[in-house]
Amino acid sequence: MFRDKAPWWAYVAILLTSIGAVLPLAWLFLLSLDPNQGIASGSGVYSLKNYASVIFQSMMAQYFLNTTIVALFTVLCTLTCATLGAYAASRYRFPGRETIMIGLLLASMTPVIAVLVPLYALAAKLQLLNTYSILVIVFTAWQLPGTLWLLRSFMNSIPPELEEAALVDGCSRAGAFVRIVLPQLVPGLLAAGLIVFVYVWNEFIIAVSLAAKQDMRLVSVGLYFYLSDFGVEWGKIAAGAIVSIIPPAILFLFLQRQLIHGLSAGAVK
């Protein structure tokens, strides 16, 4: 393991990168405290008026509820399907296994805009527009390939001998999976779940196309409607953006160790 002291330019690079990451957020926070709604007013007068307006005088609370419901169900569906698929792809050998895995990964690289019209037409035909169901289904399908690959890599790092020992002791295959594999898969599940949650929380194109009804909007779509024909309410957009950052940021702070562990699974053998 390397113990050499990092060169001075590495510290400078890290410092500059950190400043570059923090400055936009600092500017956004100051803008959210400006009651004059000017993007560059610099009035020097600060208040929580924009936050009060966003939280108590708009439908942002409903948007947060919608986004939370969709995100949690998407995480649940994605992890359930991906865990079972990753187990099959890791533990069983069958013809075309790698071809199927690569095909799933290639399918996930298709631009959203390329399939948006067919998705909208299908959702309209099934009468699923402006429902939680269509958002959960589409988001799950979009995140499933990447999550499947991540969990498969993590699953490969779990010795199959542990399951074999459980089978010898009388466990069924399902029992060995639940009692042996799942507990060791928790860091990978937390990492994958966090990635899926953040994706749903920030998604805009699919959300605005399939759930444009006012009481069904997600947070990202709700922020967009502060841009109107009468002008742009910069202070409210900034306040809403700051508030919307809080849930993913809190999750990341609590799960950052599991995220790093899960993303690096399989990198070192």
Automatic annotation (TrEMBL):
Residue spans crossing the bilayer: 9-30, 63-88, 100-123, 129-151, 189-212, 232-255
Keywords: Cell membrane, Membrane, Transmembrane, Transmembrane helix, Transport
Keyword Cell membrane among record annotations: yes
An annotated GO BP: transmembrane transport
SUPFAM superfamilies: MetI-like
Main localization, broad class: membrane
Example of a GO cellular component annotation carried by this entry: plasma membrane
Domain ABC transmembrane type-1: 64-255
UniProt topology in membrane: Multi-pass membrane protein
Signal sequence residues: none
Alphabetical list of InterPro entries matching this protein: BP-dep_ABC_trans_perm (IPR050901), MetI-like (IPR000515), MetI-like_sf (IPR035906)
Localization terms from the record: Cell membrane
Pfam families the record matches: BPD_transp_1
Family: Belongs to the binding-protein-dependent transport system permease family.
Official protein name in the record: Carbohydrate ABC transporter permease
Native organism taxonomy: Bacteria, Pseudomonadati, Pseudomonadota, Alphaproteobacteria, Hyphomicrobiales
